[in-house]
Amino acid sequence: TRLPSKLTTLNLSATQLEGALDFSGLPRLLKQLDLFNNAFTSMNLEQLPERVTDLALSHNALTGAVDFTRLPSTLVRLYLNDNQLSGPVDLTQLPASRVSLILSNNRFSGTVDLTQLPTSLRILYLRDIKEDHDLFQDEFNVLKQQPRPTRFRFS
Q: How many C-beta atoms lie closer than 10 Å to residue 100's C-beta?
């Protein structure tokens, strides 16, 4: 089934969908895509339409690494929490417009460099970090503006 070309919001959350996500056929005007609470196993974020601002993929079964350096520049909010994503987390080239980045409860590894985060970033949630640090507060872990720690290691 072909989606309408003028579609700007698509919510298929909690619909028991599964398998690999193919974003290549989505309408170019799509801005909000909610696919949380399903059973998707893989994705390629480079296929997202260039106008997407909000992407919710939390609570799926997504695996593999995520190339955070190749996200669409329009993507303001990205929710990837509660999956099985792995590999390094390179946040040094996030788009300047990024406001929210939720990555908790995955299997990321390595060191996260927090020295080049966009000034627009207001929410950064990395609950898998085992080190005790005051970067985060409250349930959604609002990123404090000063002082900024420089690196964290995933355990």
A: 18
